[in-house]
Amino acid sequence: MTTLLPPGLESVPEPTATDAQLRRFLHGLPGVDQVGAEARVAQLATRSIKNESKDWALDLIIRMIDLTTLEGADTPGKVTSLARKGLRPDPDDPTCPPVAAICVYPDMVADVVRITAGSAVKVAAVATAFPAGRAAMDVKLADTRQAVADGAHEIDMVIDRGAFLSGRYGKVLEEVVAVREACGSGPDRAHLKVILETGELATLDNVRRASVLAMIGGADFIKTSTGKVAPASTRPVTMVMLQSVVDFRAATGTQVGVKSAGGIRSSKDAIRYLVLVNETAGPDWLTPDWFRYGASSLLNDVLLQRRRRTSGVYEGHDYVTLD
Question: What is the pTM of this model?
Answer without folding.
Answer: 0.93
